[in-house]
Amino acid sequence: MCSELFSKGVYYQMVPAALLGGQRGDPDIKEEATSLAPLQGKIDHIYHVRNSVDRRKSADKKKDSTATRRLYHRSLFYKNFVALDKPLIIPEGKTDAVYLRAAITSLTAFHPKLGAIEQGKLKLKIRFLNQTSTVHDVLQLGGGTGDFKFFMLRYKELLSSYKHCPLSHPVILLIDNDDGANEVFSVAKQLGVTGISHTSTAPFYRIHNNLLLVKTPETGPSKGKTCIENLFPLSVLATELDGKKFDPDKKHGEAGKYGKTRFAEKVVRPNVSTIDFSKFAELLNRIALVMDDYLAAKLQ
């Protein structure tokens, strides 16, 4: 089934004849599947069972991958980056998705291109990579810019292994335009991207095919350097929780401070209707421009 999917974009499953109007005892019928979900569910189950009985350390599993792990990686890559159903954003951390959802909700100028309120809830036209522990382990994404470098370097090679490669939507790597981006810039230049730096102002940078890079706007006081938290008003960043102050660079156990997760869940999420998200407009505009440019290129 996987071979057919990766080479032709379709796969078939055997369905009991009785479910399709046949008689009891009739042989099963081969039917084209209309969704990736049944196959992905089977692969998920097989991987988790076999991975649980593989007692090797995580590093050893990555270094000497089993056939099951390699297949699982291929299926996740195909689902998320090759045959994706919406533009995909891969942020550096989980909290970035909370911020962007809130900003899209608040900034109606980006409705309905990025999302819109339907029956009182935000319905997105984009999606964010679900940065689970499994995604981090198998796809090696979710650990910030260090993972991005490895992903960028391998992307072209990984795409080439799929004969069916629709690439209907862009994949956007979203990074903070701070010191942590230096190595990402270096890899981007290695891959042929020109003119990228902390002070460059292009809305996006094409890495390879449907993989693009977007950085936070260059509005910081120190040579244009910014992180996504800089887009919040100072009054919001100054919010105290239980007598603790917000520090996006908080170290584990550091006294008197709270970190990004609590800021996203206890400050941003409950106060979407009152926070001023106007500084997020330029970042959301860059995402929208990626979508417009990619669609225009596909239509040529």
Output the keywords:
single chain; 300 residues; 11 helices; alpha/beta
Description:
The protein is of the alpha/beta class and 300 residues long. Helix content is 40%, strand content 13%. It has helices at 2-8, 37-53, 58-63, 67-82, 94-106, 133-138, 145-159, 182-190, 234-237, 260-268, 281-299; strands at residues 12-15, 29-32, 88-91, 115-118, 121-124, 127-128, 171-175, 205-208, 211-215, 245-246, 257-258. The strands form 4 sheets. It has a 5-stranded mixed sheet. Strands 1-2 form a two-stranded antiparallel sheet. Helix 2 (37-53) runs antiparallel to helix 4 and helix 5 packs parallel to helix 10. The chain is globular and about 70 Å long.
Number of helices: 11
Q: Structural class of the secondary elements? A: alpha/beta
* Amount of helix: 40-55%
Main sheet: which strands, in order across? Answer: 6-3-7-9-8
Number of strands: 11
Q: What is the residue-averaged pLDDT?
A: 91
Main β sheet profile? 5 strands, mixed
